[in-house]
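The records we work with from here on pair a chain with its fold. Taken together, the tokens spell out the fold as the letters spell out the chain. The record below shows the convention in full.
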Amino acid sequence: MATPDKKTQKYDRQLRLWGERGQSRLENSHICLLNGNALGTEILKNLVLPGIGQITVVDGNKVQASDLGSNFFVVESALGQSRAKTAAALLKELNEDLREVHVVEQDAAVWAQASTVDSLAPYSLLVASELPPLALRTLAAAAEKRNIPLVAARVNGLVGLVRIQYPEHVVIETKPDFALEDLRLDQPFSELRQFTDAIDLASLTSAQYAHVPFPALLIKARDLFAARHEGKTPSTRAEKEEYKKLITSEYVKDQITVNVEEAVKNAYLAYEPYAIPSDVQAILDDAKAVTITHDSSAFWVMAHALRKFIATEGQGKYLPLKGSIPDMTAETKDYVRLQAIYHNQAEKDAQTMISYVREACKSVSREESYCSEEDVRLFVKNAMFLKLIRYKSIAQELDAAGLNRDELEMQLMDPSSSAGWYLLFRGVDQFYLKHSRYPGAELSADLEKDFSELSACVDEVIQHHGLAVSISKSNDSALNEDMLREMVRFGGAHLHTIASILGGVVAQEMIKLLTQQWLPMDNTFVFNGIVSASAVISV
């Protein structure tokens, strides 16, 4: 075997995770970080190491003594110098494959408030670390118009928060932990039907019967059940039990063999009606799939073609066949033949989809290469697992009626939930809007006064959204006074351990967004380092 090239050897483990396609997307990405503080640099570290292509660091701060205690990407000799340049230089040393490093020595809040749709054009993803509320809202509005992902992250002592905003994120390679089998036993396609019909169970010896693949046993039993019930398939509990008894008794010679056990275990595949998953159906029903234009993305062009496939080839309800089969008890020759049967049908479906996609491209004046054959095949292979995520914008979240009150209130009913910290971060934002600093952030701050004012700010957030919650004096509550005091005590400080943990979480979610693989978290993540707990909230 040929020796793997240097790049393959270097990125071997991650190539096994997201493949060359995912690696290429990382290498062609340009990340813009606002604020090179401890959290910001930890995020970039976890992106530079796996091979991100370009980074831009926006930060007008100088390295201070406080940075030395929390930020591993500044050094004592850099005191008083540009924090952006210092951090960028040390990040560059982590990976020679980082092609370009850009530095913008400007206050991140000022840069964010001056951002426009055009100024964000060079970037694949924006990540804002500790951006003040007004600046974040301005940046979020521009990112939404540009349709690029924005990740806002912050740390306050032992707690942290991450928020994703992305108007539209589509995922083809969701990589589910438990993928549904698609064997089409409820309505076998012609080649599978011929394979099954050629097997005469009554004439087989015990040894031969013990190696009949379970899909054939299920189809045979389904046919027998239908013949005895006027063409019906099992639907009631009693009928399903009767169907399973047919599998274990009708043709079994001496004893229940492994293939019969496999058939009983997978009996539902023969009588449960085929259904397109709800997430996929939502994509098919989306206006962007129904009507495509020259500006439609390749994903929506393929989704449009998929609608036509289902309506014509799929009898109005079937997706293209995935083409893989699980391991099963069978003679090698029979298993290989069954594999070929499914592969052939899947290839036929793929070719049909390719032709429909080409028609769709032509209809909106796009070249065939707009959706490459490789793209279409990947789409077809994962058609059962497609996912569309439309994140709520930050502006919507801040609107009085925009917050998901039901979910937040439900989580806050659990005293062990970390969801209360979300409201505290919102209260801290209110405090910042009034004082241009975080509670407890200045050495001269009156901590008791800051605590009282922060309490009032949290109450404002609660009333603004009409939440049926309140700050409790008891620490046996998901939102209590002890938590507020901790928020004031932290004073906006970055602890490296928490910044490191949260930096890893953020980078992981960013990789999901960039590679378009796996499902990123839904909206907001809160980490409570005091008790090592977390919560995901779709606010």
In short: Residues 284 and 307 are 6 Å apart (CA to CA). The beta strands are 30-34, 54-58, 100-104, 125-129, 150-156, 159-165, 169-171, 387-389, 524-528, 533-537. The first strand starts at residue 30 and ends at 34.
